[in-house]
Specification:
By secondary structure, the chain is an all-alpha fold. It contains nine helices and no strands. The relative contact order is 0.07.
Length: 189
């Protein structure tokens, strides 16, 4: 098929099935963002595999199967995220801070759960696995500068969820950021 025919077929498929897929996603208990992501991912698969999408009434069933598989993957990922958060050290195993804090580990876990999976993963990779911005860039397939910007925004969202002012900066860089800043520019690429 040529691209014009593919595009018109895809548009017709989208128009005919979007409402049903939107209902499907809403009735699975997903929040709005996850529901939109599920629908978008389902149609992305349909676009890539348009040659195998049935052209009759079974197209919606095919899309439901794709959405179901994507939803299973999402639930597995969310389960792994919860397990990762559950493995965070408990309050009594963390060394006491020099600053008094009223934030409990449970509050931090709830705030991490409220973040998007990417934000949560970025924060955990830096806090737990001590990745640098350059290493985050490799994991998230972006530049070190973009990773640093995304991390800054993720930290601000976490701080906001924990009741801190937005834009609060650490006064001293973390250990891996100090090491990274000492590296020559070529080593960061």
């Amino acid at each position: 098929m040529n691209s014009v025919m593919d595009e018109s077929r895809f548009r017709a498929l989208f128009d005919a099935t979007y409402p049903a897929l939107a209902r499907y996603a809403r009735h699975r208990g997903l929040d709005r963002d996850d529901a939109e992501d599920l629908i978008a991912s389902t149609f992305e698969v349909a676009w890539r595999r348009l040659d195998v999408v049935p052209s009759d009434d079974e197209a919606l069933l095919w899309l439901y199967a794709v959405a179901f598989n994507l939803l299973r993957n999402l639930r597995r990922r969310q389960g792994r995220d919860r397990q990762l958060v559950a493995r965070l050290p408990m309050v009594d195993t963390v060394l006491p801070s020099s600053e008094p804090s009223t934030i409990t580990t449970e509050a931090i876990r709830r705030a991490l759960d409220a973040l998007s999976p990417d934000d949560r993963e970025m924060i955990l990779l830096v806090a737990v696995d001590e990745l640098s911005a350059a290493q985050l860039g490799v994991v998230f397939n972006c530049s070190a500068i973009a990773a640093r910007t995304r991390l800054y925004r993720a930290r601000n969202r976490l701080a906001e969820l924990l009741g801190f002012e937005r834009g609060v900066q650490r006064l001293t860089p973390s250990r891996h950021e100090q090491v990274e800043n000492d590296k020559p520019w070529e080593a960061l690429r």
